[in-house]
Amino acid sequence: TVGTVAGSTAADYLDAREIEYRSFAGPTEMLESFTNENLDAVVFDFPILAYFANGEGRDIAEMIGNPFKPENYGFILPSGSPLVEEVNQSLLRLRENGTVNDLREKWFGKN
User: Fold this and answer.
1) Going edge to edge, which strands form the sheet with 41-42?
2) Per-10-residue mean pLDDT for the chain, 111 residues long?
3) Closest Cα partner for 111 from 43, 49, 50, 44?
4) Is residue 53 within 8 Å of 35, Cβ to Cβ?
């Protein structure tokens, strides 16, 4: 039994391939069902599943395969915010000095 979040990109992916699944209102409910062994697999956003598999689910979950549709995440600030340049510079610095990769590995695992 496969689970995913209703209305998500993952649900669209499964629908397009005519793969049956159980829908959940959100990732918390879906992962709880997985933890309670009511699901055999889940398909959803890579960062959320990687965080789960690398954290509280590390003894019961394993990430397999590659993301099927890479998507980017971002930050939003109010239009005209004086913080835009400071945030951009900080993010660039963290990326250049390797901190982003270190954080990604810490929270999402090496893969």
Assistant:
1) 22-24, 2-5, 41-42
2) 96 96 98 98 93 94 86 85 94 93 84 59
3) 50
4) no
